[in-house]
């Protein structure tokens, strides 16, 4: 099913008012009410029996829900643990929870589509000697990448090794993996310092490593793997600031386009978004974000939710030295829900909700999910 057909099916389901379902967590840290963030009441027994898929999350800032270090002494590298991060997140008492946003992030909405309340708990939350959470586990950590990462940050391949060790120790059963789903939420941190001369050579290595991560997950027995395309870098506030947040930087978008084309070819993904075997799906985050935020283009109707498409809600006030979360180093908007971007590169909770609502139909078709989640 292609993207447009799947989205049409999703629209019909929305109009039909399909029931909402959720799956409770076993660990006390994660029993939250989620009144305006898509939380829902316990599903009927039949729905619980249908929703048995565990979600294993790998990646970086787009999916991290608390694996990053919280030491205030790390400054910028622990900013996700300081106000105003989390300010819109009623599921976590409007407090920072290690997410790179004002609230929920991609992995949370992916989990909701699967019938869970939010993303599975972070790998660093527990030693898991009694077994992992019923919903799965999140290995993603902010600033991660496919290649080299900052000190103390686990790169993608080693995140998969963490899962492998849990399997070896009997804490994750292989029979669970057959019905499980892996999200590889890679946003392109490896390209942060690439230029026109180095991008393509770096891209070949990055794409090969991402393909290796997917292959390793399949070898472990994971049934379905979803992989992000990288977002349009040129539409991030980091690059739109030069145009006073009125236009995307086409040059900044050229690299992601090449990466995504190479990744699609390497994974053998067709126009419909998945491979011939039905085991891998490419989540076209790039096209969705572009349709939502690129000015002067005919994009998604969901873009009308936002009064600010390219300007960040949380903006540094001291040029390159300030950042969101630095005391006296940022300005903050009054209504994050009207902004697509939270800071220089990450969507708001409302931004992620719009992205994942547009991807919900294709994801449901790929995973064989029939019960529509409203979020």
From TrEMBL:
<dbReference type="InterPro" id="IPR036514">
    <property type="entry name" value="SGNH_hydro_sf"/>
</dbReference>
<dbReference type="Pfam" id="PF00657">
    <property type="entry name" value="Lipase_GDSL"/>
</dbReference>
<feature type="signal peptide">
    <location>
        <begin position="1"/>
        <end position="24"/>
    </location>
</feature>
<dbReference type="GO" id="GO:0016788">
    <property type="term" value="F:hydrolase activity, acting on ester bonds"/>
</dbReference>
<keyword id="KW-0443">Lipid metabolism</keyword>
<comment type="similarity">
    <text>Belongs to the 'GDSL' lipolytic enzyme family.</text>
</comment>
<keyword id="KW-0732">Signal</keyword>
<dbReference type="InterPro" id="IPR001087">
    <property type="entry name" value="GDSL"/>
</dbReference>
<dbReference type="GO" id="GO:0006629">
    <property type="term" value="P:lipid metabolic process"/>
</dbReference>
<protein>
    <recommendedName>
        <fullName>SGNH hydrolase-type esterase domain-containing protein</fullName>
    </recommendedName>
</protein>
<keyword id="KW-0378">Hydrolase</keyword>
<feature type="region of interest" description="Disordered">
    <location>
        <begin position="25"/>
        <end position="50"/>
    </location>
</feature>
């Amino acid at each position: 099913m292609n993207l447009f057909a799947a989205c049409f099916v999703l629209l019909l389901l929305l109009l039909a008012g399909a029931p909402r379902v959720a799956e409770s967590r076993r660990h006390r840290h994660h029993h939250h009410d989620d009144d305006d963030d898509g939380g829902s009441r316990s599903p009927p027994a039949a729905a619980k029996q249908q929703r048995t898929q565990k979600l294993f999350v790998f990646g970086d800032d787009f999916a991290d829900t608390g694996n990053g270090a919280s030491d205030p002494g790390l400054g910028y590298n622990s900013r996700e643990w300081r106000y105003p991060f989390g300010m819109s997140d009623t599921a976590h008492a409007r407090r920072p929870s290690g997410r790179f946003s004002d609230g929920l992030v991609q992995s949370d909405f992916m989990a909701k589509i699967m019938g869970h309340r939010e993303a599975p708990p972070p790998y660093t939350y527990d030693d898991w000697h009694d077994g992992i959470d019923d919903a799965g586990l999140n290995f993603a950590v902010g600033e991660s990448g496919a290649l080299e990462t900052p000190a103390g940050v686990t790169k993608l391949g080693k995140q998969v090794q963490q899962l492998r060790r849990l399997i070896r120790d009997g804490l994750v059963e292989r029979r669970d993996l057959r019905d499980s789903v892996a999200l590889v939420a890679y946003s392109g941190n490896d390209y942060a310092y690439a230029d026109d001369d180095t991008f393509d050579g770096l891209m070949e290595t990055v794409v090969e490593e991402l393909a290796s991560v997917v292959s390793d997950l399949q070898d472990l027995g994971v049934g379905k793997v979803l992989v992000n395309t990288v977002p349009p870098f040129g539409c991030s506030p980091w690059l739109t600031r030069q145009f006073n947040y009125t236009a995307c930087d086409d040059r900044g978008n050229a690299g992601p386009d090449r990466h995504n084309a190479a990744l699609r070819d390497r994974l053998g993904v067709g126009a419909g978004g998945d491979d011939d075997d039905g085991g891998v799906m490419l989540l076209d985050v790039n096209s969705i974000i572009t349709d939502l935020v690129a000015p002067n283009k005919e994009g998604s109707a969901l873009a009308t939710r936002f009064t600010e498409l390219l300007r960040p809600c949380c903006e540094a006030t001291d040029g390159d030295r300030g950042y969101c979360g630095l005391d006296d180093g940022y300005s903050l908007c009054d209504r994050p829900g009207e902004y697509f971007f939270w800071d220089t590169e990450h969507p708001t909770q409302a931004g992620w909700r719009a992205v994942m609502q547009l991807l919900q139909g294709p994801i449901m078709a790929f995973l064989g999910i029939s019960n529509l989640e409203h979020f």
